[in-house]
Each structure stands twice: as structure tokens, then as C-alpha cells.
Design a protein that fits this description.
Strand 1 and strand 2 form a beta hairpin. The chain is built from 4 helices and 2 strands, in the order H-E-E-H-H-H. It has one domain. The two termini are 29 Å apart. By secondary structure, it is α+β, with helices and mostly antiparallel strands. The longest helix has 18 residues. The chain is flat, with a radius of gyration of 15 Å.
Length: 78
């Protein structure tokens, strides 16, 4: 295994876009992702708290992410 492949994690996922279509994305966690860099060495609880706080701030700043589109069950799935 190369050093480069050990230093990143790839994950693919499918989601429903705003018009109801399904789309697939590849998420790459590596040092080029500032969110990953900020939480990668935190305890899981601290990382989740940080991510939830940051997303809450983002949702307040962007009206399209008010949270009304998703139920708590959807968030639990994420």
C-alpha cells in the first residue's frame, strides 16, 4: 500500500438532489479537506459536536439549509 493511499479515505454515496433525482458522489478525506484536518484527531464525541456546531452555523447563514427538508430520521441515517 502506498503512503498516499494510507493517508486518505474514499467513500461513495448516493443522495436525492433538489429535483428528486438520484446522484452518486465520491467523498475523499485527505489533507486537502479543511474539515477533515480540523476533526481527524478529535475524540468521536468532540468531532461530532464540532461538526454539528459548524453545520448549525452554516444552516443559519444559508436559508436553503433550514433543516425543514429533513426529518430527524434522515439526520440519524447520515
Amino acid at each position: 500500500m502506498s503512503d498516499q493511499s494510507r493517508d486518505r479515505a474514499d467513500s461513495s454515496y448516493t443522495y436525492t438532489n433538489t429535483v428528486g433525482g438520484k446522484e452518486s458522489k465520491l467523498a475523499r478525506l485527505d489533507d486537502s479537506d479543511p474539515v477533515w484536518v480540523s476533526v481527524r484527531h478529535l475524540h468521536m464525541k468532540d468531532a461530532i459536536d464540532t461538526l454539528m456546531t459548524d453545520f448549525g452555523k452554516f444552516a443559519q447563514e444559508h436559508a436553503g439549509f433550514s433543516g425543514s427538508v429533513y426529518s430527524s430520521a434522515d439526520r440519524a441515517t447520515i
